[in-house]
Amino acid sequence: MDKRGILELRKRFKKDATTVSRVCGCYVDADKNIVSTFNENFLNLPDEDLFKYLDILKKSLGGKFGNNLFDIEFSTESEKHGGNQQILMAIRDSDLKNDDMLTSFYEHIIDVYCHAGNYLILLFIDNYDVMTKTSDNQKLDESEEVYKYIICSVCPVDLSKPALGYKEKENTIASRTRDWVVGSPESAFLFPAFNDRSTDIHSALFYTKKSADIHTEFIDAVLQSKDIVSQDDKRDRFMNCVANSVNDDASETLLNVYSEISNKAVDDGLSLDDYDMTAEDLKKTLMEYNISSEYADNIVDVCMEFSDDNKIKANDIVDDKVLKKNELYIAYKKLLAENEELKKQLALLK
Q1: pTM of the full structure
Q2: How many helices (H) and strands (E) does the chain have?
Q3: pLDDT digit string (tens) for 250-270?
Q4: How far apart are CA 146 and CA 81, in angstroms?
Q5: How far apart are CA 254 and CA 258, in angstroms?
């Protein structure tokens, strides 16, 4: 999926635009016991509840690709009879009305999901009448297809913090009653994927709230897909490889490499998000900053491990936050380099 497709879906998570027809859920305690379940007509919910569920839906498709959002492709095994993709198809096609099927699905998640506390499993179903768009992105009053999909969100449920509050009946300030509060989703997925504004039953979209805490056990057991690596993790691997390859200040070398790659992207008229490098491009850049050929090869090999098309994405290794934090220092170094060059030219003229 891409940003445009996700934005198109998220825009519809509003009271006057949503066509989500049903929501069901399962509340699980810290001992993995099912405490309660429910199954409701979504549009019949009180406004106060409906708005909170819409907020969960938006957050389940929020964040940045590579850190919070990941495309998932189903394995051949999962698409066979009885495979996980087939189970998800059956849940979707049941319109979330088969309680036995839902219970089995909840139990499967509970068996594998690692969470030290209470949590809520939510399932939503939507039928989106996808309107035809012209080349200039204007909608036509005719439907291309009905995109039928489910979103599954897993939300932590925690006790509210102790606090003082005003008790109206007693007209006094006293300790307020603590209750259990449903938090923002920490894991979620959308199935089928919405690729090129159309249904793609061979793919799904996975969401994680924290890139450093991806529930790979959830991905493996429910979506039957290989583990995913976050962008933060890729950058950490690159940073550690560079640090292990130099004897002097690793942070200085890393900043130089970041800056060089960023400059090359700018020269090509691209952002770091859109700039790709070949293995040879990266090796050449690394060697420019006193990283030996042997170490450069090792670093490139690590980067190629998380490449899907034999290209290394610049934003998978360059931490733009570090670049922004050091903007003044980079500008100062550039000015010094220009002054040195000017001195050399003046010396030649004497």
Answers
A1: 0.80
A2: 12, 14
A3: 788 888 888 889 989 888 999
A4: 25
A5: 6
pLDDT at 129: 93
Question: 103-137: buried (b, 16+ CB within 10 Å) or exposed (e) per residue?
Answer: eebbeebbeebebeebbbbbbbbbebebeeeeeee
Do 165 and 176 contact (CB within 8 A), yes or no? Answer: yes
pLDDT for the residue numbered 304? 87
Nearest one of 174, 181, 184, 183 to 159, comparing CA atoms: 181
Span 61-84, pLDDT tens digits? 999 888 899 999 888 888 888 889
Average pLDDT, the chain: 88
* Residue 193 near residue 203 (C-beta atoms within 8 A): yes
Burial 196-208 (b: 16+ CB within 10 A, else e): ebebbbebbbbbb
